[in-house]
Amino acid sequence: MAYTTINKSTDYFNTKLYTGNGSTQSITGVGFSDWVWIKSRSDTSNHRIYDAVRGGTKTLYSNLTNAQGTNADAITSFDSDGFTLGANAQSNGNGLSLASWNWKANGTGSANTDGSITSTVSANTTSGFSIVKWTAGSGVSGIGHGLGVIPKLIICKNLSVSSAWTVGSDLLNDWGGYLGLQSTNALNSETRMYKPSGYSSPTASLFYQDHSAFGSAGEDMIAYCFAEKTGYSKFGSYTGNGSTDGTFVYTGFKPAFVMIKCSSSGGSYTSWSIFDTTRQTFNVNSGKTLYANRSYEEGKRGQGDASTTIPGIDMLSNGFKCRVLNDEVNNTAEYIYMAFGQSLVGSNNVPCTAR
User: Fold this and answer.
1) 216, 124: one domain
2) pLDDT (tens digit, 9 = 90+) per residue, 144-168?
3) Are 271 and 299 part of one and the same domain?
4) What pTM does this model have?
């Protein structure tokens, strides 16, 4: 019997590596283009996040609280097999080695009236991912997300003013708090982000937010919403064991991308650690870690600091196993993670291979 209906995970998530040319170039071989997250591997350029709903000239930075920036030379088009870049120095600097993580939604989106205010939603219900843009009202609003099922995790940002990124999930005090994507801090217990007083946690059609927690009425907002799909995506938590023979985390598929964050404590080395099997093709997946909240070049846990232990995990056929003792992935603390990959057996009954 098939384990998942997603036979080819790279139809919905794909990592693409490329070298900047300082001019224009088309990045192909992705297979789609809706949400593009770019980071230079070879210098300290900021992370850059683009999506088809806001448009390719609109830039967000996962490691900063900055409002949305406008760069006419960033992504000049979202294409059927990837995206076209302008001469932007951080997304296409000459000679830079860059990584892009790419998720498929559903183009530029359409109006969604499920909530108390209308949102623009680009949703892929097969893979459980949607991009949601709306203009904040006053007080609490319900926002339609288009997934058709309850989200497992939501990443949200105010586009108009400087403010924290907020990551909410039922894994984080049942939506009763958030983690900052740009921050090393532990869980913030603020409930207005995803479970305002008197309102429910997210439903199959919408989520609630008290916009007084973000800013003011009339400001633009963006959210990236994820639902868990068996054999393709997993959003979970685990307890580190503080050993080099670390915790094994079962996902039910072979991960291609894993991002991990300590939720129970904060500190200089409790960053959002990003691993993938395109940049690091063998186990231990270490030495090429990037951090969502840091502009560090690849493999630097502290810029210029080569003495500290770089986070490392084994990517296995059914999950991942921590292979270091450090704060990012495997101290005696609580962690959350998001993972995308390929099931052992899809609806075509063709097995994938082990790593």
Assistant:
1) yes
2) 999 999 999 999 999 999 999 999 9
3) yes
4) 0.95
